[in-house]
Structures are given as C-alpha cells and as structure tokens.
Fold:
Amino acid sequence: MNTRVNEPSNLRLAVLIDADNAPRDCLKSVMEEVAIYGTPTIKRIYGDWTSPNVGGWKTSLLENAVTPVQQYGYTTGKNSTDSAMIIDAMDILYAGRTDGFVLVSSDSDFTRLAIRLREAGMRVIGIGERKTPSPFIVACDKFVYIEVIRDRYNKEKSEAQPKAAATAKKTNVKTAVPAEKPTEKAPHKTIPDEIVALIADSIADIADDDGSCDLSYLGNLLIKKQPDFDSRNFGYGKLSTMLKALPRFELEIRPTADPNYKTMYIRDKEA
Structure:
C-alpha cells in the first residue's frame, strides 16, 4: 500500500547564493535540498573572490557546477555582493526562463527582493542559518534552516560509512577496516505549545464536515502561515511522524480513486 506524497516539482529554479552569508561546508547538501523543490537551471554564487574571506569555495563549486560571479568591494564596509545578486535576480526574472528562486543567505537585505519576486508570481525559497532575521524568513514562500540540512547530510554520511567499511571487509579480509560506530540519531525536540496550536488552528481552517483534513493540504497551509515550519526542526523526518508523536491528533489512511494510493487525513481530537 502506498500513500500519496508530494512528488519532486518540475519548477525551473534560479539558485542565487550570497558567499558572504552562507557556509561553504554544506553546498552539496543545499543543492540536494533544492532538488526537492525543482530543477536548478541557474546556479550562481556572488562574492569578491579576490578576498580571503570567501576562500575555500573552489572545490565545492566545481563539484556542484555553481558559477562564481565576481563582485569587487568598491567601498570599505559596504556589501556590494547584495547589489549584484539583486540586479541579477531582476534580470533573470524579466528573462522569463524560471518559475522560482532559491535565495541562499542569512542577510535580511534580501527581504525586499523576496517580496518583489513573489509579487511577480515567482515561488521564493529561502535557505539560511537560524540567525536569519524574521523579516527575510516571512518574505519567502518557504524557508529552510541550513542547520537542518547539515544535520541530514551528516546523518546520511555517518550511515554510509559503516556500510562501506563492511563491504571492504568482505572483499578483502587481510586489509579489513573496522566499521565505525554509526552516529546516534538526533533526539526529538519538544514541540512548543505554539506549534501545536498552529497545527490545530490550521486543521480547523480547512477541515471537512467530519473535522478531518488532507495531511498534504495541512502541510502546505502550515508553510504558508509560517515559512520556516519544518518537521525536521524538531527532529522528525516527516510531518506525519511528527504528528503521530502528538497525542492530540489522530491520523487515518483513506482509499482514493486510484487503488494504488491512499491519502492520509488528520483530525484534532480536542476540536
């Protein structure tokens, strides 16, 4: 039995990265995250590549086919990278070859850009660190924290290492490498009362006559209300898993017109 899930989108995305305000150690995992939302047809990163502050990007840029854009710092204390990235974004918008933008930065200076792009009908996804100011977060359709992406990548990497070591042991006993102990899963965090209330209110907003609603619709509404909402923020890989951990909510799988798929519904027991 399969339950209907959100399939990867075919949106054409322009990925614009602020090298001054994005960590260089997780570009690969950021691009994997982008693939969930669409196809990155444009991938550019902006910075003053003559400055030692942006050193160390070269290898990851080559591995992920990201084009570096040079922007000199003409005035001390002024971030000219922001201006170059904003101008490019508007050029891309008017060229009409993309359906959305991914802005990778923790800088609130891109708030107005995100708003303008959404006004033009573009889907805007922000990716930045937890220190990102709230105005930029809420200006995006969806905002994902880099820390969450990094945790996911590190988890996958730690799980792959023991498997590789075990394979090496089978193929070459004499030079067998002892398997590393897999990293423990990140513990689930306490889900704040305000998040539980947000979920309950959202269910009430779209519930059928029987008080239940389609889980996929709920997920979309939660992100519209709070762009940085993500079950991974609380240690849960999926929204359904997170909701199952909350006794207030009841999940039910129902058949659809397609016999190969089922739809998951959720109900607030306290409603």
In short: The chain has two domains: 8-149, 193-268. Confidence is low (pLDDT under 50) at residues 1-7, 173-184.
